[in-house]
Amino acid sequence: MECATKQLLRGDQLSISSIRYKTARLAFISAIIALTVFFAPINVPAGTHDASADTADAQDQAEIFYYFTSAQLQKKDGNIAEAIALYKKVLKLDPNSALINADLGQLYFMTDKNDEAIEALNKAISLDPKYAEPHAILAEIYSTMDDDKNAAKHYAMAIEIDPKNTKNYLMLGIIYAKAKEYDKATATLEKLAAFNPNSIMANYYLGKIESERQRHSKAAEYYQKVIEANPNFANAYIDLGMSYEQDKMPDKAIEAYKKGLEENPGDLMLLKRLSYIYLYQKKYKEAAEVIEELEGKAETRDEARLKAGLIYFEIKNYDKAIEKFTRILETTPDQYKIRYYLGASYEEKGDIKAAEIEFSRIPANDQSYVEAKIHLAYIYERQGRLDDAITQIKEAQDAKGETPELMRLLASAYKARKDYGEAVAIAEKALK
Prior knowledge:
Layout: H1 4-9, H2 25-39, H3 51-76, H4 80-93, H5 98-110, H6 114-127, H7 132-144, H8 148-161, H9 166-178, H10 182-195, H11 200-212, H12 216-229, H13 234-246, H14 250-263, H15 268-280, H16 284-295, H17 301-314, H18 318-331, H19 336-349, H20 352-360, H21 369-382, H22 386-400, H23 404-416, H24 420-431
Helix pairs in contact: 2-3, 3-4, 4-5, 5-6, 5-7, 6-7, 7-8, 8-9, 9-10, 9-11, 10-11, 11-12, 12-13, 13-14, 13-15, 14-15, 15-16, 16-17, 17-18, 18-19, 19-20, 19-21, 20-21, 21-22, 22-23, 23-24
């Protein structure tokens, strides 16, 4: 026997879209009663018709319809708490509606009430074991709770009941892949691809699985299918390029990144990957050009300036390196690693005074402090300021301890000062 909610929603007996939430409730219910009495099927044995029973049944159905449509409108407007309250009123009148229990479970999930959601959805399943939707919602809930075992169980049950719902194949395949059950993941996603061989998500995640399994040439085949179906899918170009990188094919990787940028101009990740591979190949000019474009984007400005500065330092264009590092420090002066790079650039350029200033600004609690002290020691030793050089090395030791490297430097400074006894003692200590 049908529950009242399904009875009301069957066919085109009533037009839900014609109802508006702010309609006067009593007038609304009266109209619904009249319509329900006229349209609703009457399951009373012949010869025993009871008009008062029909009216009472119609009253309940009208109430259910009113609360249900009102709940739908509140849900549409984002008023989830109000929708939940209205669904509860429906359930008082029609507690055996699988549909209402499932909808209520979904609303509880939307408000992070997972325990209540699971209870409502399990009730929906007990009322209608062939109803796929509550299984899918339960699977999503368990997935957010990192309970992949139960998530996989319910996605599989949803697929068994409704094998044409392709979303469930995708989500189940992803869960299997996350658990490194790659054979199951592949089999599930291939079923999804069987519905649509050009499925973007099926082919993309099949490619991701092959990448995880270190089968990069096979992964590349799937990513190429994705690109054929959707040339604007930036991530597919990124993963395709990275597959080529893993297979030691940098030229093909560069080609993939460039094609991706043709379809997605200015994409940050594509620009980053392209700059990385140019750097790896020591194509500094090309890398600098890409990084200059990255520098124009607020999201990656400082990161791009850092990379550009390091590139210019590597190719001995110290003025440009100094320019990039200085620009970063204008907005974030406490980035002491950048200040260290700036000091090193000044030192290599020969502006020793500026280098000394930058190295001296790095505090003892920063990871660049010891390296800065070593640079200052070298600067002072070259200037003949041996006492100052020794002081810098000892301050580095205070921060890092008497490491062999620092002890050798200290011995060298004492030797330069012609304090040979101290130099030998320190050198011997370093060898122990």
